[in-house]
Amino acid sequence: MREVEIVGKKVGDEHPCYVLAEIGINHNGDLDLAKRLVDAAVQAGCNAVKFQKRTPELCVPEAQRQVMRETPWGIMPYIEYRHRVEFSEDEYDAIDKHCRENAIPWFASCWDLPSLQFFRRFNPPAYKIPSALITDMELLSACRETGKPLIMSTGMSTMEQIRKAVEVVGQERLVLCHCTSTYPCPPAELNLRMITTLRDEFNCPIGYSGHEVGLQTTTAAAVLGACLIERHITLDRAMWGSDQAASVEPHGLARLVRDIRVIETAMGDGRKRVYESEHAVRRKLRPVSTLEPRPGPE
User: Fold this and answer.
1) Which CATH superfamily hosts domain 3-270?
2) Is there a cis peptide before residue 61, judged by omega within 30 degrees of 0?
């Protein structure tokens, strides 16, 4: 059985879908907003929340650093904006405390080695490898060395790149997520059948990281067997930020979790049976036939 355990919750084919609420940078550098997003995930019944951590000087290409951008704080160089949306150690301490008080696990996508090292102090239950870093072999190796469960997205990657990344991180503690890195992603490019393709090739749980508008295609991913489902969350899709439009608001997040749980109940085990609730209907609607099973001797 392919499974990975995250804080006592098993992720795999025979277990309930692990629902991960991606806060990312939708907090826009506002600690209070980040806490409210955590609260929304808790109220919706999510299994965990996730943030993103970058070292701007390493993650922002030189040519983009001084490009002027409109931001909630006015027009400023892109590198300054990237610093504005990064939380400090004290702010992450506050997030850690808030998540512990609300009994929800939290971790992060670490976009560079210093960010990975930074998060070690919080002893996160897992690490996320974002699609953009799937070809960074040094970071992949460092993630594997943590010994923690890894969740790796596969957007904008070829099958050969995915195979190489899986070879580097190993499959023992890996959840591999199908993903298309377009924000928001049109339905025609979601390619949900890739969930089945990845399940057939790799010996690890397969998840889905969605960036689409709406919920129906995400619930379809659960039907196709995604063991983990990740969606970006926001308090308002009209808020400023590049990920907001592809995110789910609190009421939608609650609906998504509810529908995934209903789908899990409805899927069954694939073995045909006549349910007790059908017996009265059968007696009423079906003519007596020699094909019907007859009671045996007392």
Assistant:
1) Aldolase class I (3.20.20.70)
2) no
Distance CA 132, CA 156 (A): 8
- pLDDT by residue (tens digit) across 121-162? 999 999 999 999 999 999 999 999 999 999 999 999 999 999
- In 3D, which of 256, 258, 217 has the Cα closest to residue 233? 256
Give SS3 for 206: strand
Q: Give the torsion sign (CA, 156, 61, 129, 226).
A: negative
- Note the pLDDT of residue 2: 84
Closest CA to 4 of 257, 260, 230, 206: 206
* pLDDT recorded at residue 289: 64
Name the residue with tokens 């909630």. Answer: 72
Length of the chain: 298
Count the neighbouring beta carbons within 10 Å of the beta carbon of residue 285: 8
Domain boundaries, the chain: 3-270
Residue among 90, 143, 97 nearest 120 (CA) = 143
